């Protein structure tokens, strides 16, 4: 490859600690030598967020809105210890949460599969993409202790002056207990549906949405009805053209089906279900270091990609002391490839799409040929059995990927 690929506009967000070190290596060794991007960079490192009173995070989100593609490094969400460590002005919110609130959309997680990395669920030969509706339900509920006998009621009071409607939740006759009121919004459910259908179309995989509508006939039934209406009206013909489908499933049936399946589908989960299932599915595939996370907005145009893991603080402490680390960069590389693939889709840029595919293939082929970081060697052999000769350090592995990418791109037919 003598000429660089013209890549278009991308918003890049730098992060913290060991992932920040890896982020710079990815750009230097794997992206910039081959792709000429119109890059809009925002430093979301904790010190710079503090210096700008977190305005930089909002600016980054607004830029993603404008340019439709964001690629984000892992960042620190400060707790009390971090506030003290960095002498922060305050305990700033999660950058991911801030960006999500500004962009809307649904977070989808997907495993990166290598044949030689064992999975806890051995039948999962294809990825399962989990979309979590990260709004409402238990996470915005009002719950309270009922101190003693009495009635708990819920009242809806229309703003147009109509007659209030009261529902009896429970008549506590002999003792107290607990009670909860929770809600969701039609618009939020519609946005969730659009994002889920868009993801299924982009993957070319069927979509399942799970609820417990047999018990929560109106609450979960609303999710089921909205998804079905939108599917029939806007997506059915597109799904049929790709020979894929949409189905609603009961959550218990869906969990059982997922475990028996070979993977290769998108699973849209309500908030609590997604919270639980995304972690269990991640564990089933073996490693969070091999998990992508993509925020898809309901407009179908705007996407933000990132790694599904944290900033790898323990390795950064070793790196600061000049000690050797073996940190897995794969999920961070896939944040770049998924972001660039979306840019390619928006611009109908075949060369950029082929580059993103080639880089993903290089990552998987390199690991499958026996070159990997320590965490993956531990997945194969068990940590106590791993010898130094079984893995590469952080920089050796990046160099190996760069070498293999150069070879692969040289062998591709010229565009």
TrEMBL record:
Keyword Manganese applies: yes
Cofactor: how bound: Binds 1 Mg(2+) or Mn(2+) ion per subunit.
GO BP term, example: glyoxylate cycle
Boundaries of every Isopropylmalate dehydrogenase-like domain copy: 9-401
UniProt site positions, description: Critical for catalysis: 139, 212
GO-annotated cellular components: cytosol; mitochondrion; peroxisome
GO MF annotation, one: magnesium ion binding
Record bears the keyword Ubl conjugation: no
Lineage top rank: taxon: Eukaryota
Binding-site list for D-threo-isocitrate: 77, 94-100, 109, 132
InterPro entries assigned: IsoCit/isopropylmalate_DH_CS, Isocitrate_DH_NADP, IsoPropMal-DH-like_dom
Residues that bind Mn(2+): 252, 275
Binding of NADP(+), residues: 75-77, 82, 260, 310-315, 328
Cofactors, names only: Mg(2+); Mn(2+)
Transmembrane segments: none
EC number of this enzyme: 1.1.1.42
Family the entry assigns: Belongs to the isocitrate and isopropylmalate dehydrogenases family.
Protein name: isocitrate dehydrogenase (NADP(+))
Naturally occurring in which organism (per UniProt): Callaeas wilsoni (North Island kokako)
């Amino acid at each position: 490859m003598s000429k660089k690929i013209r890549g278009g506009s991308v918003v890049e967000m730098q992060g913290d600690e060991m992932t920040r070190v890896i982020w710079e290596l990815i750009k230097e060794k794997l992206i910039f030598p081959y792709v000429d991007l119109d890059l809009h960079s925002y430093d979301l490192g904790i010190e710079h967020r503090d210096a700008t009173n977190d305005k930089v995070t909002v600016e980054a989100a607004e830029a993603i809105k404008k340019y439709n593609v964001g690629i984000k490094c892992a960042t620190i969400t400060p707790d009390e210890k971090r506030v003290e460590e960095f002498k922060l002005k305050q305990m700033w919110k999660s950058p991911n949460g801030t960006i999500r609130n500004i962009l809307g959309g649904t977070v989808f997680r997907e495993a990166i599969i290598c044949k030689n990395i064992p999975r806890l669920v051995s039948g999962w030969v294809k990825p399962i993409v989990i979309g979590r509706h990260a709004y409402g339900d238990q996470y915005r509920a009002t719950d309270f202790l009922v101190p003693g006998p009495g009635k708990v009621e819920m009242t809806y009071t229309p703003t147009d002056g109509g007659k209030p409607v009261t529902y009896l939740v429970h008549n506590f006759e002999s003792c107290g207990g607990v009670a909860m009121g929770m809600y969701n919004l039609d618009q939020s459910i519609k946005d969730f549906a659009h994002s889920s259908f868009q993801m299924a179309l982009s993957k070319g995989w069927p979509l399942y949405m799970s609820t417990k509508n047999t018990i929560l006939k109106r609450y979960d039934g609303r999710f089921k009805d909205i998804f079905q209406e939108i599917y029939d009206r806007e997506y059915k013909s597109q799904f049929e053209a790709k020979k894929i489908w949409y189905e609603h499933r009961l959550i218990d049936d869906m969990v059982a089906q997922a475990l028996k399946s070979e993977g290769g589908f998108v699973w849209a989960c309500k908030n609590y279900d997604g919270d639980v299932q995304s972690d269990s599915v991640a564990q089933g595939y073996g490693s969070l270091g091999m998990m992508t996370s993509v925020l898809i907005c309901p407009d179908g145009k705007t996407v933000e990609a990132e790694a599904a893991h944290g900033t790898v603080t323990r390795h950064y402490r070793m790196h600061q002391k000049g000690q050797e680390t073996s940190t897995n960069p794969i999920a961070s590389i896939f944040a770049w490839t998924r972001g660039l693939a979306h840019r390619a889709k928006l611009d109908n840029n075949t060369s950029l799409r082929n580059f993103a595919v080639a880089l993903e293939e290089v990552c998987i082929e390199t690991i499958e040929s026996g070159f990997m970081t320590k965490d993956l060697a531990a997945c194969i052999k068990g940590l106590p059995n791993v010898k130094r000769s079984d893995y590469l350090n952080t920089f050796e592995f990046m160099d190996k990927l760069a070498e293999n990418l150069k070879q692969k791109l040289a062998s591709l037919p010229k565009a």
